[in-house]
Write a structure and sequence with these properties.
The protein is an alpha+beta fold. Helix content is 39%, strand content 13%. The longest helix is centred in the first third of the chain and has 40 residues.
């Protein structure tokens, strides 16, 4: 057996200031100017703060490691000491001394620097940049890199470019590849053009972009006229329409979800419908100072449309059929309102349509028809007529309403405007001698154009709470939007060309100090990274998450336009019908209209091949960082299996809070707040062959696992990582044990699969988490239902203080689920409770010695989800089936009246005459959990005497486990929930009832 090679640990394998990095990552979500998110939309892009921090920690060796190169240790010490008198804030806390004579103090100083450099305000600070780049260079050379060269960071799933950008920022060389041409183009701007041309590029993009805007404005001026009073329209609000199918009606029905136009503090404006039964038409008027009672409901709900003239409701199937016949209704929508702005007068102004608006609409339609009839030379028209891919209908479900071609997402004026701007950018003569510089300018202008596209489709809503227009991708899908906003791109307001150009200019300008070092963006599948073996210092990547985001289907929205502008310049990228879809490493969920071959097996096989390819190009001494944020146990098992089977050894994991709780996919449920950063090393010899390590003994591993979790979970809690985030953050330390071996065997010689080991990991985490929940108490004295409930609630926590949204799920469910304007599924009653993916719930239960099938009075299982029942839904189980009807307590009720309905027959021979305090004895439940829930319900309906008798006379309070469980629930239930209020009410009675 070849002896193992010892390499110094990287800093990220030892420690990381995750709490401080997370704070910077959260703050970054609200930053605009100069941020990469303003260059071009990309879905699930990683925060720059987290990328910058983990890349530095991956490139720095640990100064306290015995194998740390002396040169790096000495230079790190000198550099830290040299920060005095500069703007670099190191150290940033009083626990780290200024004396860097000890290697551990040097480690602490570097960790402090990384935490401070993660701050957006320091990302372009010359002192921070100099510090980082100097030590990155020293680390590279002292670890065997060629003097003068830069460490190579490879990202085979480069996507939106966060990782390549931050690798460049700290002074590394970058190879960014992606299968998606749109992603490749973004990364070309980031890693090639901006570092090469710097501030000059930013200035010229603004210069030529302004020229394009002015030429387009002049050419299209007649289609964007000012109002007679001189006001400038900044947005036109439209509604798709259908014909009412009510008997003898046939009125035109504008499809409007909400009548509110402006709904902010001190300012409320709404539309009012004015039906005209004679004309079979609806008029509009503007209400200022509107009160909620004055504002009518929208005409469309859950896909069905109600006619304001006759009151008839046309069902969703008919609405869909009518719109499908008109290709979605974008080209014959009804203009219902115009938003205007007047210089010197703050605030938006709203008006109904006037005759000049209608004349302009007709003029636009005639002009567009002329453009469409113009013969061409055989090349593609500037208006995209490619069809959408039916396989993506789950994410682009506007297709079911007839929007089957990409041009169907735009109304006539938008199509006319976009075709003109696209033609101007394509034919623009840029006066520069360097063809590569001309290409850089034109490419950046094409990205500006993409921003215009995203702000100029019929999927853009008018947001009444901000009185602005969000872009097309307010969510990671292309849904149907009934009433939409069309921005005036030549105004100086929402969605304007000038504003979007400024965002791209600011990004280029802010990053003009990136080092030019030969970095490359290339189109390539991650399964075959086009690099020689053993060349990469670090693999840092963010692979696709199972079936979470359909990058290819969504990015075709831009691709169909980009290829009309840039096909001659980038023939390899833009000469195909669409973005490559078949080879994209994602899972396509089954659908009746889809014939996709991209199954779970396809995903797992190709992901493993991708990590195989990454290991081939990585140096034996390299480190890998793989970012993952999925909450399905299946997707986690898939990626971990791919990592280990492709020859990587997991050496750590860190949870960095990167998500916003108010994002669309998180509303109403507490999704994974953190992204898990897996740290790994190639398990190979210096010659590149896979190193065959010793065989692991299953018994030894099972003994070591709980010790590792016991040491790790409290550390995560100190850093603010709790709940589901902590569970997944434990995977790194757990897998470090398992993946250090070539294989693990039982005493019988049977090989232990990863899936079986992960079951043990979940069990170990569940037991350790339960000890944290009950702290000084022995949880083994509680029955399985109490242990499971406590662990379930802990899993849903998203912060140490318990603040979360009150409902959680381990799964990334369909974005279109729930009541939305395009949701035509039958209305379902809202259910309370706390949901987990069934497999996750099963594993948690097994780890606690419980079985879900035996706990049906506590847990409801439906399909792939399991729901911990709200206490209110346990009335019948807790108070007996023979004591009358006991419906569930409404989750949203907030008072005694709401509970009496569900409890009126409970424990009373004559509920019609019994008072709240005149109940007979309540029989205590069989388990501690039942008794706590019974007490909570009695408090909830205000039956103080019954609660006293139950706790004192019936003896429920004599069991110390009762109070311990209630105290734990007080910390676990989310603030604002009924359960939290009830259990706190019971605890408040403890001392008064004589229990101290």
């Amino acid at each position: 057996m070849t002896p193992s090679i010892s390499y110094p640990k990287r800093l990220i394998e030892v420690d990381l200031p995750i709490k401080r990095i997370s704070a910077h990552a959260r703050r970054e979500k609200s930053i605009r100017h100069g941020h990469i998110s303003t260059l071009h939309i990309w879905w699930a892009r990683r925060p720059l703060a987290a990328c910058r921090a983990v890349i530095l920690a991956a490139l720095f060796p640990d100064p306290a490691d015995p194998d740390c190169p002396p040169r790096f240790l000495e230079e790190a010490r000198k550099t830290l000491e040299g920060t005095r008198g500069t703007s670099v804030n190191v150290p940033s806390n009083s626990k780290v001394r200024w004396d860097y004579s000890k290697p551990k103090d040097v480690r602490s100083g570097l960790l402090d620097f990384i935490a401070e450099f993660a701050n957006w305000d320091n990302s372009t600070n010359k002192d921070y940049l100099a510090f980082a780049r100097h030590l990155v260079q020293v680390a590279h050379e002292s670890l065997g890199g060629v003097p003068g060269s830069r460490p190579l960071v490879v990202d085979p799933f480069a996507g939106g470019g966060s990782i390549p950008l931050e690798a460049l920022r700290v002074g590394a060389q970058v190879f960014a590849c992606d299968l998606n041409p749109v992603a490749v183009l973004l990364n070309k701007v980031i890693v090639e053009y901006i570092p090469r041309f710097g501030k000059r590029l930013a200035d010229d993009v603004k210069k030529w972009g302004t020229i394009v805007k002015e030429q387009a404005r002049q050419e299209l001026a007649e289609f964007y006229p000012r109002d007679p009073d001189g006001a400038t329209p900044i947005a036109y609000l439209w509604a798709r329409t259908i014909r009412c199918e009510g008997p003898s009606c046939g009125a035109e029905v504008p499809l409007i979800r909400s009548m509110w136009l402006g709904k902010r503090s001190g300012r409320s404006i709404a539309l009012n419908l004015v039906p005209d039964s004679d004309a079979k038409r609806v008029g509009f008027e503007i209400i200022t100072g509107a009160k909620a009672r004055d504002v009518q409901e929208g005409t469309v709900k859950r896909g069905s449309a109600t006619c304001p003239v006759c009151g008839y409701t046309t069902q969703v199937s008919s609405v869909r059929r009518q719109l499908k016949e008109r290709r979605g209704g974008s080209r014959d929508s009804r203009l219902i309102c115009v938003v205007t702005d007047r210089p010197g007068q703050p605030g938006r102004r709203y008006r109904t349509t006037i005759s000049s608006d209608l004349l302009c609409v007709e003029k636009v339609r005639r002009s567009l028809e002329a453009v469409l009839k113009t013969p061409n030379d055989g090349s593609a028209t500037l208006i995209p007529d490619e069809a959408l891919d039916l396989r993506g209908i789950r994410h682009t479900w506007s297709m079911i309403y007839g929007m089957e071609k990409w041009c169907d997402f735009f109304n006539p004026r938008q199509l006319l405007m976009l075709s003109v701007i696209a033609g101007l950018i394509k034919s623009l003569t840029i006066e520069e001698d360097d063809p590569s510089y001309v290409l850089a300018i034109r490419t950046c202008l094409a990205l500006v154009f993409d921003k215009v596209i995203a702000s100029s489709s019929t999927l853009c809503r008018w947001d009444s709470s901000t009185e602005k227009q969000p872009g097309t991708f307010a969510r990671q899908a292309l849904p149907m939007v009934w009433d939409y906003s069309e921005a005036n791109v030549f105004s100086d307001s929402t969605g304007s060309f000038s504003g979007l150009l400024e965002l791209v200019f600011k990004f280029c300008e802010a990053n003009a100090n990136l080092l030019e070092n030969g970095s490359i963006s290339r189109q390539s599948s991650a399964t075959n990274v086009p690099l020689p073996a053993d060349c990469a210092t670090a693999l840092v990547t963010d692979p696709p998450y199972y079936d979470a985001i359909p990058y290819a289907y969504l990015s075709n929205f831009f691709y169909c336009w980009l290829k009309r502008i840039l096909q001659d310049e980038y023939p390899d990228l833009f000469s195909h019908h669409s973005v490559p879809i078949d080879d994209e490493i994602v899972v396509d969920r089954p659908h009746e209209l889809s014939n996709s071959h991209k199954s779970v097996q396809f995903y797992e096989q190709n992901l493993q091949t991708a990590f195989d390819s990454a290991r081939r190009v990585a140096l034996p001494s390299s480190v890998g960082i793989i970012v993952f944020a999925s909450k399905t146990t299946a997707s986690w098992e898939a990626i971990l299996k791919a990592v280990i089977n492709s020859g990587w050894t997991v050496t750590g994991s860190w949870a960095i809070d990167t998500e916003m709780g108010n994002r669309v996919s998180a509303q109403g449920q507490a999704r994974l707040a953190s992204s898990i950063h897996l740290v790994c090393r190639p398990r190979e010899n210096p010659d590149g062959s896979l190193r065959q390590t010793e065989i692991g003994d299953w018994r030894d591993i099972l003994q070591e696992l709980p010790r590792r979790i016991h040491a790790w979970l409290p550390r995560l809690a100190e850093e603010g990582i709790v709940g589901a985030d902590a569970i997944f953050a434990c995977l790194g330390p757990a897998l470090e044990i398992f993946s250090r071996y070539s294989r693990v065997e039982k005493a019988s010689g049977e090989v232990v699969p990863l899936r079986e080991y992960l079951e043990q990991v979940w069990a170990a985490v569940a037991k350790e988490a339960l000890s944290l929940v009950f702290r000084d108490a022995d949880a083994t004295g509680l029955e399985p239902d109490a242990r499971l409930t406590a662990m379930w609630l802990w899993t849903l926590k998203t912060s140490p203080d318990g603040t979360d949204s009150g409902q959680a799920t381990f799964d990334t469910e369909d974005e279109e689920a729930g009541e939305d304007e395009d949701d035509d599924s039958p209305a379902k009653p809202s259910k309370g409770g706390f949901s987990l993916e069934f497999d996750a719930a099963r594993k948690i239960a097994q780890g606690l010695g419980a079985h879900l099938e035996n706990l049906t009075s506590v847990v409801e299982i439906k399909g792939k989800m399991a729901r911990l029942l709200p206490v209110g839904e346990r009335v019948k189980a807790l108070f007996g089936k023979d004591q009358g009807k006991a419906p569930s307590i409404p989750r949203k009720s907030r008072g005694r009246a709401g509970f009496l309905k569900g409890m009126e027959d409970v424990s009373s021979p004559d509920p019609a005459t019994a008072s709240s305090d005149d109940l007979g004895p309540t029989k205590p439940g069989a388990t501690v959990l039942d008794r706590v829930h019974q007490a909570m319900l009695l408090f909830g309906i205000g039956r103080a005497e019954a609660l006293k008798r139950f706790i004192v006379e019936e003896g429920a309070g004599s069991d110390p486990r009762f109070w311990k469980l209630a105290q734990s629930f007080s910390a676990l239930y989310p603030p604002g929930t009924d359960e939290k209020r009830w259990v706190d009410g019971v605890l408040a009675r403890k001392k008064g009832l004589g229990f101290g």
